[in-house]
Amino acid sequence: MEDNLSDEFSELVQGQAELWNLTVGFQKSMSLRCALDLGIPDAINNYGQPMTLSQIQSALSLPSAKKPHLHRLLPLLTHIGFLFEQGAGVRTEAIYGLTTMSLLVLKNGASTMFPLACFNLDFIIVKPSLHLSEWFK
């Protein structure tokens, strides 16, 4: 009996985790779109080596009031594998560098996927999915 309850609880927790992943999973692609719009991969590439948060803030043309909020986006981009982060410590600022994925969306890259990525994440493409249930009704 206890094993059945334990199994049911595990299944419930697994189901909740999957549901959360689906309902907030869009944030991954929207974070990617934001990085492309801001030019983060190109800024790091143009610098020639990984950059600290403050260096990225300086390299981007952002309003001064918005720059402090960039620290929320970079860990998300790291989590999805778009950037890598290393060296964060008590006395050292983390540096962010390009991964294979981010190299694929450099605007002037030899085999860039930048236009395709921007197209697939454009509101014109995403909007119809928001109305899929209306179509069925």
From TrEMBL:
By its UniProt entry, which InterPro entries does this protein fall under? Answer: COMT-like (IPR016461), COMT_dimerisation (IPR012967), WH-like_DNA-bd_sf (IPR036388), WH_DNA-bd_sf (IPR036390)
Gene Ontology molecular function, alphabetical: methyltransferase activity; protein dimerization activity
Q: Which residues form the O-methyltransferase dimerisation domain?
A: 20-107
Q: Which PROSITE patterns match?
A: SAM_OMT_II (PS51683)
A Pfam family of this chain: Dimerisation
| UniProt-listed SUPFAM superfamilies | Winged helix' DNA-binding domain
Q: PANTHER family in the record, alphabetically?
A: O-METHYLTRANSFERASE
**Protein name (database record):** O-methyltransferase dimerisation domain-containing protein
